[in-house]
Design goal:
It is a single chain. The chain has 327 residues and is α/β, with parallel strands linked by helices. It folds into 2 domains: 195 residues, Alpha-Beta Complex (Quinone Oxidoreductase, Chain A, domain 1); 125 residues, Rossmann fold, CATH 3.40.50. Helix content is 23%, strand content 28%. Strands 3, 5, 6, 9, 10, 17 and 18 form a 7-stranded mixed sheet that branches. Strands 13-12-11-14-15-16 form a 6-stranded parallel sheet, with helices on both faces. The chain is globular, with a radius of gyration of 19 Å. It starts with a strand and ends with a strand. Bound molecules: zinc ion (2 copies).
Length: 327
Protein backbone atom coordinates (compact mmCIF):
# COMPACT_ATOMS: atom_id res chain seq x y z
CA UNK A 1 0.00 0.00 0.00
CA UNK A 2 1.04 3.64 -0.44
CA UNK A 3 1.68 5.58 2.74
CA UNK A 4 3.12 8.96 3.60
CA UNK A 5 5.58 8.26 6.40
CA UNK A 6 7.25 10.47 9.00
CA UNK A 7 10.73 8.99 9.29
CA UNK A 8 12.49 11.85 11.04
CA UNK A 9 11.32 14.78 13.16
CA UNK A 10 11.52 18.06 11.28
CA UNK A 11 11.59 16.40 7.84
CA UNK A 12 8.81 16.19 5.23
CA UNK A 13 6.79 12.98 4.95
CA UNK A 14 8.12 10.36 2.53
CA UNK A 15 5.99 8.32 0.11
CA UNK A 16 6.56 4.62 0.85
CA UNK A 17 5.31 1.30 -0.46
CA UNK A 18 4.47 -0.79 2.64
CA UNK A 19 2.78 -4.15 3.22
CA UNK A 20 -0.92 -3.94 4.10
CA UNK A 21 -1.05 -4.34 7.92
CA UNK A 22 -2.60 -7.45 9.49
CA UNK A 23 -5.28 -6.78 12.11
CA UNK A 24 -4.61 -8.40 15.48
CA UNK A 25 -7.33 -9.68 17.81
CA UNK A 26 -10.04 -7.02 18.33
CA UNK A 27 -8.59 -4.93 15.52
CA UNK A 28 -10.06 -3.99 12.18
CA UNK A 29 -8.29 -3.61 8.87
CA UNK A 30 -9.75 -0.49 7.29
CA UNK A 31 -9.52 0.73 3.72
CA UNK A 32 -8.97 4.45 4.10
CA UNK A 33 -11.23 6.67 1.97
CA UNK A 34 -10.32 10.05 3.44
CA UNK A 35 -8.16 11.39 6.22
CA UNK A 36 -8.37 14.85 7.72
CA UNK A 37 -5.20 16.84 8.26
CA UNK A 38 -4.91 18.42 11.71
CA UNK A 39 -2.62 21.00 13.25
CA UNK A 40 -1.61 18.29 15.73
CA UNK A 41 0.06 16.48 12.81
CA UNK A 42 2.28 19.52 12.36
CA UNK A 43 3.11 19.55 16.08
CA UNK A 44 4.18 15.89 15.84
CA UNK A 45 6.31 16.53 12.74
CA UNK A 46 7.95 19.53 14.35
CA UNK A 47 8.86 17.55 17.49
CA UNK A 48 6.57 19.60 19.70
CA UNK A 49 4.89 16.47 21.09
CA UNK A 50 7.17 13.99 22.88
CA UNK A 51 8.01 10.43 21.81
CA UNK A 52 6.16 9.85 18.53
CA UNK A 53 6.41 6.24 17.38
CA UNK A 54 8.78 6.59 14.39
CA UNK A 55 8.61 5.69 11.57
CA UNK A 56 5.03 6.89 11.78
CA UNK A 57 1.98 7.24 9.56
CA UNK A 58 0.16 10.38 10.72
CA UNK A 59 -3.57 11.04 10.53
CA UNK A 60 -6.29 10.75 13.17
CA UNK A 61 -9.43 11.78 11.28
CA UNK A 62 -9.87 8.63 9.24
CA UNK A 63 -12.99 7.65 7.35
CA UNK A 64 -12.86 4.20 5.83
CA UNK A 65 -14.52 0.88 5.24
CA UNK A 66 -13.88 -2.29 7.19
CA UNK A 67 -12.07 -4.92 5.11
CA UNK A 68 -11.79 -7.61 7.78
CA UNK A 69 -11.40 -8.05 11.49
CA UNK A 70 -8.70 -9.84 13.49
CA UNK A 71 -9.37 -13.18 15.11
CA UNK A 72 -11.65 -11.94 17.89
CA UNK A 73 -13.09 -8.89 16.21
CA UNK A 74 -16.68 -9.08 15.06
CA UNK A 75 -18.45 -5.84 16.00
CA UNK A 76 -18.26 -4.48 12.48
CA UNK A 77 -18.71 -6.70 9.41
CA UNK A 78 -16.74 -6.09 6.23
CA UNK A 79 -18.05 -3.09 4.33
CA UNK A 80 -19.11 -1.11 7.42
CA UNK A 81 -18.16 2.55 7.26
CA UNK A 82 -16.21 3.63 10.33
CA UNK A 83 -14.35 6.66 11.62
CA UNK A 84 -11.04 6.37 13.44
CA UNK A 85 -10.46 9.28 15.84
CA UNK A 86 -7.46 10.44 17.89
CA UNK A 87 -8.18 8.21 20.90
CA UNK A 88 -7.10 4.80 19.71
CA UNK A 89 -6.96 2.94 23.01
CA UNK A 90 -6.93 3.32 26.79
CA UNK A 91 -6.22 1.03 29.74
CA UNK A 92 -9.73 0.87 31.20
CA UNK A 93 -8.30 0.54 34.71
CA UNK A 94 -6.68 3.78 35.80
CA UNK A 95 -8.44 6.37 37.96
CA UNK A 96 -9.28 8.41 34.86
CA UNK A 97 -10.71 5.53 32.85
CA UNK A 98 -12.78 4.51 35.85
CA UNK A 99 -14.28 7.99 36.21
CA UNK A 100 -15.46 8.58 32.62
CA UNK A 101 -12.29 10.50 31.79
CA UNK A 102 -10.58 8.08 29.45
CA UNK A 103 -9.37 11.12 27.52
CA UNK A 104 -6.89 11.56 30.40
CA UNK A 105 -5.87 7.87 30.64
CA UNK A 106 -2.29 7.31 31.79
CA UNK A 107 -1.80 4.65 29.11
CA UNK A 108 -3.84 6.21 26.29
CA UNK A 109 -2.84 5.32 22.75
CA UNK A 110 -3.38 7.96 20.10
CA UNK A 111 -3.95 7.36 16.40
CA UNK A 112 -1.31 8.75 14.09
CA UNK A 113 1.01 9.33 17.05
CA UNK A 114 1.56 6.14 19.08
CA UNK A 115 0.12 3.93 16.37
CA UNK A 116 -0.14 4.39 12.63
CA UNK A 117 -2.95 6.55 11.28
CA UNK A 118 -4.68 7.30 8.03
CA UNK A 119 -2.16 8.92 5.69
CA UNK A 120 -2.16 5.58 3.88
CA UNK A 121 -4.37 3.33 1.79
CA UNK A 122 -5.06 1.06 4.77
CA UNK A 123 -4.84 1.25 8.54
CA UNK A 124 -5.72 -0.93 11.50
CA UNK A 125 -7.67 0.25 14.54
CA UNK A 126 -8.99 -1.23 17.77
CA UNK A 127 -12.63 -1.95 17.03
CA UNK A 128 -13.66 -0.68 20.47
CA UNK A 129 -12.41 2.80 19.60
CA UNK A 130 -13.83 3.35 16.12
CA UNK A 131 -17.08 5.20 15.50
CA UNK A 132 -19.69 3.65 13.21
CA UNK A 133 -20.68 5.92 10.30
CA UNK A 134 -23.57 5.71 7.90
CA UNK A 135 -21.53 6.12 4.74
CA UNK A 136 -24.19 8.23 3.03
CA UNK A 137 -21.92 11.27 2.86
CA UNK A 138 -18.75 11.98 0.94
CA UNK A 139 -15.99 10.71 3.29
CA UNK A 140 -14.06 13.90 2.61
CA UNK A 141 -16.82 15.89 4.33
CA UNK A 142 -17.00 13.53 7.33
CA UNK A 143 -13.27 13.25 8.07
CA UNK A 144 -12.90 16.72 9.66
CA UNK A 145 -15.65 15.90 12.14
CA UNK A 146 -13.48 13.24 13.77
CA UNK A 147 -11.09 15.66 15.45
CA UNK A 148 -11.83 19.26 14.51
CA UNK A 149 -15.51 18.59 15.09
CA UNK A 150 -15.61 16.47 18.16
CA UNK A 151 -12.64 17.79 20.14
CA UNK A 152 -13.91 21.27 19.34
CA UNK A 153 -17.29 20.19 20.62
CA UNK A 154 -15.71 18.95 23.84
CA UNK A 155 -14.15 22.40 24.33
CA UNK A 156 -17.46 24.04 23.48
CA UNK A 157 -19.29 22.00 26.10
CA UNK A 158 -16.60 22.73 28.68
CA UNK A 159 -17.21 26.43 28.16
CA UNK A 160 -20.59 25.89 29.79
CA UNK A 161 -23.86 27.69 29.21
CA UNK A 162 -23.36 30.98 27.38
CA UNK A 163 -25.12 33.45 25.13
CA UNK A 164 -22.02 35.09 23.69
CA UNK A 165 -18.94 33.11 22.72
CA UNK A 166 -15.62 34.07 21.16
CA UNK A 167 -13.66 31.83 18.79
CA UNK A 168 -9.94 32.63 18.53
CA UNK A 169 -8.53 31.10 15.36
CA UNK A 170 -11.03 30.28 12.62
CA UNK A 171 -9.91 27.08 10.92
CA UNK A 172 -11.18 23.55 10.79
CA UNK A 173 -12.68 23.36 14.29
CA UNK A 174 -14.11 26.86 14.57
CA UNK A 175 -15.84 26.84 11.18
CA UNK A 176 -17.80 23.79 12.37
CA UNK A 177 -18.48 24.99 15.90
CA UNK A 178 -19.83 28.34 14.80
CA UNK A 179 -22.62 26.41 13.08
CA UNK A 180 -23.39 24.47 16.25
CA UNK A 181 -23.37 27.65 18.34
CA UNK A 182 -25.59 29.51 15.86
CA UNK A 183 -28.06 26.62 15.79
CA UNK A 184 -28.24 26.95 19.58
CA UNK A 185 -29.02 30.64 19.31
CA UNK A 186 -25.69 32.05 20.48
CA UNK A 187 -23.96 35.18 19.28
CA UNK A 188 -20.51 34.26 17.97
CA UNK A 189 -17.50 36.59 17.86
CA UNK A 190 -14.61 35.46 15.70
CA UNK A 191 -10.98 36.52 16.12
CA UNK A 192 -8.42 35.91 13.37
CA UNK A 193 -4.84 36.91 12.73
CA UNK A 194 -4.86 40.72 12.63
CA UNK A 195 -5.66 41.90 9.12
CA UNK A 196 -6.89 38.54 7.84
CA UNK A 197 -9.99 40.03 6.23
CA UNK A 198 -10.52 36.96 4.06
CA UNK A 199 -11.03 34.67 7.05
CA UNK A 200 -13.12 37.33 8.77
CA UNK A 201 -15.39 37.44 5.72
CA UNK A 202 -15.61 33.63 5.77
CA UNK A 203 -16.66 33.77 9.45
CA UNK A 204 -19.33 36.35 8.69
CA UNK A 205 -20.69 34.20 5.87
CA UNK A 206 -21.09 31.42 8.43
CA UNK A 207 -23.03 33.70 10.73
CA UNK A 208 -20.50 35.47 12.96
CA UNK A 209 -22.07 38.46 14.71
CA UNK A 210 -18.69 40.17 14.54
CA UNK A 211 -15.24 39.23 13.20
CA UNK A 212 -11.99 41.05 13.78
CA UNK A 213 -8.33 40.66 14.66
CA UNK A 214 -7.22 38.86 17.81
CA UNK A 215 -5.73 42.15 19.00
CA UNK A 216 -9.17 43.77 18.96
CA UNK A 217 -11.85 43.84 21.63
CA UNK A 218 -15.33 42.64 20.68
CA UNK A 219 -18.24 45.14 20.78
CA UNK A 220 -19.73 43.37 23.80
CA UNK A 221 -18.23 41.35 26.63
CA UNK A 222 -18.34 37.58 26.16
CA UNK A 223 -19.53 34.73 28.39
CA UNK A 224 -16.87 32.36 27.11
CA UNK A 225 -14.04 32.06 24.62
CA UNK A 226 -12.46 29.09 22.87
CA UNK A 227 -8.87 29.13 21.64
CA UNK A 228 -7.99 27.18 18.51
CA UNK A 229 -4.77 28.93 17.52
CA UNK A 230 -1.58 27.64 19.20
CA UNK A 231 -0.66 31.04 20.58
CA UNK A 232 -0.41 31.36 24.38
CA UNK A 233 -0.85 35.15 24.28
CA UNK A 234 -4.43 34.57 23.15
CA UNK A 235 -5.31 33.46 26.68
CA UNK A 236 -4.56 37.00 27.82
CA UNK A 237 -6.50 38.61 24.97
CA UNK A 238 -9.47 36.33 25.61
CA UNK A 239 -9.43 37.06 29.36
CA UNK A 240 -9.76 40.75 28.49
CA UNK A 241 -12.79 39.95 26.32
CA UNK A 242 -14.78 37.81 28.77
CA UNK A 243 -17.05 39.17 31.43
CA UNK A 244 -17.09 38.20 35.14
CA UNK A 245 -17.25 34.44 35.55
CA UNK A 246 -16.20 33.98 31.92
CA UNK A 247 -14.42 30.83 30.84
CA UNK A 248 -11.53 30.63 28.42
CA UNK A 249 -10.86 27.12 27.07
CA UNK A 250 -8.08 26.07 24.74
CA UNK A 251 -8.67 23.13 22.41
CA UNK A 252 -5.05 22.91 21.24
CA UNK A 253 -2.67 20.11 22.18
CA UNK A 254 0.35 22.40 22.02
CA UNK A 255 0.76 26.12 22.55
CA UNK A 256 3.43 28.73 22.85
CA UNK A 257 4.01 29.96 26.41
CA UNK A 258 1.38 32.11 28.04
CA UNK A 259 2.89 35.50 28.85
CA UNK A 260 2.48 36.82 32.40
CA UNK A 261 -0.56 38.99 32.94
CA UNK A 262 -2.04 41.04 35.79
CA UNK A 263 -4.23 39.16 38.24
CA UNK A 264 -7.10 41.58 37.67
CA UNK A 265 -7.71 39.87 34.28
CA UNK A 266 -8.41 36.57 36.05
CA UNK A 267 -10.16 38.16 39.03
CA UNK A 268 -13.94 37.94 39.40
CA UNK A 269 -14.06 34.22 38.77
CA UNK A 270 -12.80 34.21 35.23
CA UNK A 271 -11.04 30.95 34.47
CA UNK A 272 -8.68 29.46 31.97
CA UNK A 273 -8.46 25.76 31.13
CA UNK A 274 -7.64 23.31 28.37
CA UNK A 275 -9.27 20.37 26.68
CA UNK A 276 -7.30 17.18 26.19
CA UNK A 277 -8.23 14.53 23.64
CA UNK A 278 -11.69 12.99 23.59
CA UNK A 279 -13.73 10.20 25.08
CA UNK A 280 -15.70 7.69 23.07
CA UNK A 281 -18.83 9.23 24.57
CA UNK A 282 -17.82 12.60 23.09
CA UNK A 283 -17.76 10.91 19.71
CA UNK A 284 -21.18 9.33 20.15
CA UNK A 285 -22.67 12.60 21.48
CA UNK A 286 -21.18 14.63 18.67
CA UNK A 287 -22.47 12.41 15.89
CA UNK A 288 -25.91 12.36 17.53
CA UNK A 289 -25.88 16.15 17.63
CA UNK A 290 -24.77 16.38 13.99
CA UNK A 291 -27.88 14.46 12.96
CA UNK A 292 -29.96 17.37 14.26
CA UNK A 293 -27.57 20.14 13.19
CA UNK A 294 -26.21 19.19 9.77
CA UNK A 295 -22.86 20.91 9.36
CA UNK A 296 -21.74 22.60 6.20
CA UNK A 297 -18.14 21.38 6.01
CA UNK A 298 -15.79 23.49 3.93
CA UNK A 299 -12.83 21.46 2.68
CA UNK A 300 -9.73 21.82 0.60
CA UNK A 301 -8.91 18.39 -0.79
CA UNK A 302 -5.47 16.99 -1.54
CA UNK A 303 -4.32 13.55 -2.69
CA UNK A 304 -2.37 11.22 -0.38
CA UNK A 305 0.84 12.01 -2.23
CA UNK A 306 0.22 15.72 -1.63
CA UNK A 307 0.20 15.34 2.17
CA UNK A 308 3.19 17.66 2.61
CA UNK A 309 1.43 20.40 0.63
CA UNK A 310 -1.71 19.83 2.69
CA UNK A 311 0.25 20.28 5.91
CA UNK A 312 1.90 23.42 4.53
CA UNK A 313 -1.54 24.84 3.74
CA UNK A 314 -2.52 24.51 7.40
CA UNK A 315 0.75 26.01 8.57
CA UNK A 316 0.23 29.03 6.34
CA UNK A 317 -3.34 29.42 7.60
CA UNK A 318 -4.61 30.09 4.09
CA UNK A 319 -7.38 27.49 3.95
CA UNK A 320 -11.06 28.23 4.53
CA UNK A 321 -12.24 25.39 6.75
CA UNK A 322 -10.63 21.95 6.80
CA UNK A 323 -7.86 20.20 4.89
CA UNK A 324 -8.48 16.59 3.87
CA UNK A 325 -6.63 13.90 1.95
CA UNK A 326 -8.80 11.89 -0.40
CA UNK A 327 -7.22 8.46 -0.58
ZN1 LIG B 1 -6.59 16.59 15.52
ZN1 LIG C 1 -6.69 4.41 31.76
Amino acid sequence: MHAMVLEEIGKPLVLKELPIPEPQAAELLIKVLACGVCRTDLHIMDGELPHPHLPLILGHQVVGQVVKSGTNGSLYPAGTFVGVPWLGGCCGQCEFCLSNRENLCDQAVFTGYHRNGGYAEYCVADEHFVLPLTGDKDPVLTAPLLCAGLIGYRAYRLAGPCQTIGLYGFGSSAHLLIQVAKAQGKRVYVFTRPGDVQTQAFAKRLGATWAGGSDEQPPEQLDAALLFAPVGALYVEALKAVKKGGRVVSAGIHMSDIPSFPYRLLWEERSISSVANLTRQDGRDFFEMVKKVPLNVSVKVFSLEEANQALAAIKQGKVEGSVVLRI
